[in-house]
Amino acid sequence: MDGRDQLFMLVLLLLVLVFLLGLVVKLCNIIPFPPSWVERYRQFAVTVEYVVARCLFKIY
After folding, report:
1. Residue 29 domain boundaries
2. What's the rounded Cα separation, in Å, for the pair 45 and 37?
């Protein structure tokens, strides 16, 4: 595999992870988790979204 294939696989993996994070958010709205768990997850999700956006779009 050359560099372009590896980059494509990385972007695809990141998109799948963001999709799975979205599903977990939907699940958190359905299942009554303790508020501290939900808040901790939301902070994690925001951090992941920021890192993905920074990596994909070179935002500094």
Report:
1. 3-57
2. 12
- Longest pairwise C-alpha distance within the chain: 46
pLDDT tens by residue, 14-33: 888 888 877 777 776 777 77
CA torsion through residues 23, 27, 33, 38, sign: positive
Nearest to 44 by CA among 23, 19, 16, 25: 25
Asked if 37 and 6 touch (Cβ cutoff 8 Å), the reply is: no
pTM, two decimals, is 0.47
For residues 21 and 48, is the Cβ–Cβ distance under 8 A?
A: yes
Count the domains in the chain.
1
